[in-house]
Amino acid sequence: MRLPARLLPVAALAAASALLTGCFTGADPSSAEGDGKRVRLAMMLPPRSGLSPLSDDAFKLSRWSTAETLVKLDAEGDARPALATKWQQNGRTWTFEIRDGVTFHDGTELTAEAVVDSLTKAATASPKPRILDGVELTVRAEGDKVTVTTGTEDPLVPQRLSSPQLSILAAKAYDGKTVNPVGAGTGPFELTKVNGTSSATLDRYDDYWGGKAKSPGIDVKFVPDGTARAAALRSGEADIVEAVPVSQAAVLDQDLITEVPMPRTNTLYLNTGKGVFKDAGLRAAAREAIDAKSIVEGVYEGRADVAEGLLGPALPWAAELRSPVKRARAGDPSGESITIGTFTDRAELPEVAAALQQQLQKAGFKVKLDIREYANIESDALAGEFDAFILSRATVLDSGDPAAYLYSDFGSDGSFNLSQLADKTVDAALGKASEAKAGETRRKAVIEAEAAVLATDAAVPMLHERVIQGDAAGVTGAAHDPRERELVTVDTYVK
């Protein structure tokens, strides 16, 4: 059981602080020129693939504002210009106009050919970047324009091209066996040095097309230990700290932390294919038995949002478009035995499982828990071996669009259908959402698909998670991005 943050031993906090001593002893931040000091950044996860943009490391390059994409997303998830200034669709082909006056950090010019080179490397990589799974994509240059053609008509091509995994890098990045982003981006900060999995250094790129950055540079340290990251903020050794653990948030100055709603929902998936929850009335009984508010307050110490649907406050349009859902009447669960599975990799989930066990037993169910490491339980969950499964699930994948998540998790042929759901009404709604044009039309179709899923009680959304970011008192302009694509931007500096 987690100790309240205020009861953590002083010795543990001192030890964590010691882990950070000397971590940011590079350039003297007070000697830097410009509007502010260098930004000292403590990040949670070290690079896993040498900062290759074709991996999840791409999100680090994006958060440091060193690598950029043709398109970026606004708060609504709509595509906006970045390295491309405009685009248009003609069936399976999209044409993008490339921004003039952009140079890579090695001084070479951004051209249509350079864009084609980067995107072709991604499209032909093995394995492909996740955003291109199942997507057939070819790219060619036509003067100062780039055409992107897909195997089937795809309304989300601009959103796909916003993924950090499709960052545009200089030709030199592709000279070796792996993609090397050092000195090869187009952003306001140039990646100049990477020290394995311990640190990275970025300096301001004064020829940035979008204007001079306010900070002279970024000094990154990778600090996997959450207590150590919190200690770095408390001691003043870091200016911006990623992912402060819930257990540490209470012992920090509350003015220094920001809780950012994440597009991640903690959901109880109910097996509709066999067992107790094949009965819609018993699924309804389980839904009515769950007190999500007490889980938010008890397990997450109030630092999460009670779910009203599958899509949470990180997608602000969802609540605006959502209407009440008509559901089945609850049956009598007395004496019904169920097994709930979850995993240990996310620290809160076993605690959530214990709370659910008590709530469902109070309603009349007999509840057994099966808790393992994720690698050892995923195959059983996908095979429908549990009556119910607790999962913390990202609801917006790389394109910034929730339709893919809904289809994967609730389509009758979805690849991650833990509920074993096969419902014609749901499939029709998911199909409509998948084919809808981007923008308001697609958002409305997505909410209709969400409603169709919720009406089945195949999934009971409980809460939406938040990530806690620490910004020191002198930090100005740090991004608080639910999609975790931005952190230090051209406008970020330390006074």
TrEMBL record:
Provide the Gene Ontology terms for cellular component.
ATP-binding cassette (ABC) transporter complex; periplasmic space
Is the keyword Coiled coil assigned to this protein?
Answer: no
Q: Which GO terms describe its molecular function?
A: peptide transmembrane transporter activity
**Where do transmembrane segments lie in this chain?**
none
The signal peptide annotation in the UniProt record is: 1-27
Top-rank taxon, per record = Bacteria
Q: Tell me the Gene Ontology biological-process terms attached to this UniProt entry.
A: peptide transport
- The segment(s) forming the Solute-binding protein family domain are 80-415
Q: What is this protein called?
A: ABC transporter substrate-binding protein
